Amino acid sequence: MIVEHGVLSFDEEEIVLETGTGRISVEGEGLRITVLSLETGVVSAVGKINGILWLNESRERRAGFFGRKG
């Protein structure tokens, strides 16, 4: 997945990214962004990841990244 519009928000518990397929939320503990390249769309983070979620535009419904349907 390529991060097209960068990091929308981040703290030690959540990183929200804007990708070509929508927003992705990485939730966890002690999260830190170690690499951010807007030229290449590459983001790297360290910490304990508890979940990766796809967010719709209103953030009302969330689905697990690996269990997302159509």
How are the secondary structure elements laid out?
Layout: E1 3-10, E2 14-19, E3 22-37, E4 42-55, E5 62-64
Antiparallel strand pairs: 1-2, 2-3, 3-4, 4-5
Description:
- This protein is mostly beta strands and 70 residues long.
- It has one domain: Immunoglobulin-like, CATH 2.60.40.
- Helices cover 0% and strands 67% of the residues.
- The chain is built from no helices and five strands.
- The chain has a five-stranded antiparallel β-sheet with strand order 1-2-3-4-5, with no helix packed on it.
- A hairpin with a 2-residue loop joins strand 2 and strand 3 (22-37).
- It starts with a strand and ends in a 6-residue tail after the last strand.
Put the structure in a nutshell:
This protein has 70 residues and is an all-beta fold.
Q: Pairing-aware structural class of the strands and helices? A: mainly beta
The separation of the N and C termini measures 16 Å
Look at the structure and give the CATH class. Mainly Beta
Number of domains: 1
Residue-averaged pLDDT: 82
Q: Would you tell me which CATH topology applies?
A: Immunoglobulin-like
Helicity level, as a percent range? Answer: under 10%
- Give the strand line-up of the largest sheet: 1-2-3-4-5
Number of strands: 5
Strand content: over 45%
Task: Specify the number of helices.
Answer: 0
| Low-pLDDT ranges | none
Give the overall shape, derived from the CA principal axes: globular
**CATH architecture assignment name:** Sandwich
Radius of gyration: 12 Å
